Sequence to fold (401 residues):
Amino acid sequence: YQTNPHPHSHILYEQCLSSALGPLSPRIEDMSCPLLIDDETSYERRSWYPWTFPPVCVKAENDTRSKLCTFTYANLRGEAGISIITTPEIASAGRNVLEDIDPRWAVWERNHVHTVSTPPPYEIKDIGGKGLGVIANRYIQQGEIIMSRFPVILRMIDIEPWKYRDVLQLLHRAGIQLPTKDKAAMLALAHSKGGYIVDDIMNTNSFGVLLDDVDHQGLYLDVSRINHACKPNLFNRFSSTTLAMEVVAYHNIDKGEELTISYTPLNLLSEQRQSLIQDWGFNCTCSLCASREESQISDRRRTNMQRLLEELDEPRYQNHGAINERIDKIIELCNKEGLRAQIGDFYAIIADVFQNLGDLKSAENYGRMAVKELRYYAGYDHERTRNALTFLDNLYRGSQL
Ligand SMILES: C[S@@+](CC[C@H](N)C(=O)[O-])C[C@H]1O[C@@H](n2cnc3c(N)ncnc32)[C@H](O)[C@@H]1O
Fold:
């Protein structure tokens, strides 16, 4: 091991911040505690390993211990570079996301082989009124993985302790340290609000992602070219172990159709949806927003679903007849509203209700269905999927106490 002269990192190193056995590889010989690396520890050549450049850091105004740094890794799994703006602690704990994936392990984890459609079944073209967009160049079948990408920039969302100017400097550094090809593609992405260009690009195109369970903004090339629709034909799922964002066909898509995702959670009411879209800097012109009649019908159904879900918590409905009646109605409304991607979350709620009722068999059934749906729609190791798996793990253990 290298010696680590940083006073705080020593303690953190002893505690071993990240899971010692990286989730990407089951090999026992890979067990090691990652070192904490920042601008002070990386004074010797290569002592900033595994990063490609020595990290550049800024200190918080009132707390000199908290640093925010830019870490760059030039070649993530042969695809692109990645720059991460985060704390040294998170970078150290989350650095196993840089490891190459052992394919046998990945298949075992996911339960199926991961295949991205090749050649890509889409083209990126100018779309009137929306800038560039993505168009299907052939018939696409439900479930096809259209894109699978790693982020080129990640930035921690809670940057409150640091000066905004300092954060912008780190962002600038994040951009210039990317390999030339990725930097050019990143700088060509859409921007909408003005200000420093990379900041504007991040705010116009990023997705929320977790690094070491902490919220970050993630910028994904290509995925960023997909425009918004309230009833999209694609959904995206995220892996916190690999940082991969997969874009998958929600249903069958005809050649020539524009490929779309929803920039907002799918189940919002029209007013909430429109206001979020306006924050994005454009107007929602989907029929679900633009047609008064359609949005009223949809809002009514969604409010109904919400009410039915809330009723499941009420003691007077806590019997099998009332619960099953509500489940049938929720599923019917969910299908009518195109909210299939959220059914896993509903199953998880229902599993919980059955557990509270003491019906562990039904709780297990719904818990298993929740895991299956969440693996497919949210991601095999998404936080929501992990929560559903923990529920199943605890189900019988809890009843034996
Ligand atoms: C993530 S980018 C999508 C790709 C973008 N059109 C481009 O040229 O790269 C988001 C930007 O695309 C535009 N956009 C996305 N969906 C739209 C929609 N449904 N209607 C109008 N503009 C849209 C907005 O300007 C938004 O700020």
Remarks:
- The radius of gyration is 23 Å.
- The chain has two domains: 7-261, 270-400.
- The pocket of S-adenosylmethionine is lined by residues 130-133, 189-190, 192, 204-205, 224-225, 227-228, 280-282, 285 (CB under 6 Å).
